[in-house]
Amino acid sequence: MKDEIIHAVTGDGFIKMTAVSTRHLTEKARRMHKTLPVATAALGRALAAASMLGDEIKSENGSLTFQINGGGPIGTVMAVSDSMGNVRGYVGEPALDLPLRPDGKLNVGMAVGTDGRLTIIHDLGFGEPYVGSVKLVSGEIAEDVAAYLLESQQVRSACALGVLVDTDQSVRSAGGYIIELLPGAPDDAADWLEERIRAAGNVSAVLDGGKAADLIYGVLGEREPRILESHEIEYRCNCSRERIIGVLASLGAEDLREIEEHGENTEVRCHFCDAVYTFTPEEIKRIAEEAKK
Ligand SMILES: [Zn+2]
Q: What is the Cα–Cα distance from 89 to 50, expressed in whole angstroms?
């Protein structure tokens, strides 16, 4: 069963829901970045959220950057999605280890912190990107996403994100959902939804052996949801030698000369996938000369 994203709407047309299952891509991120459980959970939640928000972007070359800086010990939590919900990401301190919360859950809120902001950048691939930002509510990420949608987009929503880490530290289940109340929804729809969300239970429990569609039917089942669209998603980095050269070129002549005069090969590591790109001093020189033109 591959990771997937599903969009659905209730039969009455008042409630829209997007759900993702992200176990494989979260496990890939864990192995790539060697995250310990609390960092796996924080990164996994951010990847799931970024995937759902990024998949809403209609232009093919668009992307969505999801960044949390909460002042907590994990540092920055970063996730980027393309316009098809494929994601990549990293956290500042992958080896962070924290005691569990009193209820036995991983303490993502403490790892992330609450003294900071969630920033989301919508880049359509043309024109100026749209940057929205909201003060963190809990650092647990799902609530912060709902706060963002309300403040920045005036959308009444509910968001749930979950990552279940197994005893061997691998990802047992992961995913989440975002539910939006559409304009014209009757007042009691919000209460009904709240009740249904409570009854449907934890995301990671539903996805443990279940699939993204189970999240949809679990919450919206009584209102005859229609699946509008679904497709596979995966962990996908778009780095390349050309892109890295572009980044190097943007450093400016002064810095590039310093690197070149060092006389050794320069290694540039991609934050998102750990790929290493090596450049000789001659290549650095050529990049500097190209940049000057
Ligand atoms: Zn990469």
A: 9
CB neighbour list of residue 134: distance below 8 Å, 6 or more residues apart: 117, 118, 144, 147, 148, 151, 152
For residues 21 and 211, is the Cβ–Cβ distance under 8 A?
Answer: yes
Tens digits of per-residue pLDDT, 197-247?
999 999 999 999 999 999 999 999 999 999 999 999 999 998 999 999 998
* Cα 89 to middle of ligand 1, angstroms: 10
Residues 6+ apart with CB under 8 A from 20: 3, 4, 5, 6, 48, 51, 52, 85, 175, 176, 177, 212, 233
- Residues 198 and 218: beta-carbon distance below 8 Å: no
- Identify the DSSP state of 76: -
Residue of 66, 161, 72, 159 whose CA lies nearest to 114: 72
Burial of 264 (0-12, 13-18, 19+ CB in 10 A): exposed
Q: Residue 81 Cα, ligand 1 centroid: separation in angstroms?
A: 13
Q: What is the pLDDT of residues 21-66, one digit of tens each?
A: 999 999 999 999 999 999 999 999 999 999 999 999 999 999 999 9
- pTM score: 0.93
Q: CB under 8 Å to 251, separation ≥6 — which residues?
A: 259
Report CA(162)–ligand 1 centroid distance (Å): 25
Domains (range + CATH), the chain? 4-232 (3.55.30.10), 241-292 (3.90.1280.10)
Q: How far is the CA of 28 from the centre of ligand 1 (A)?
A: 13
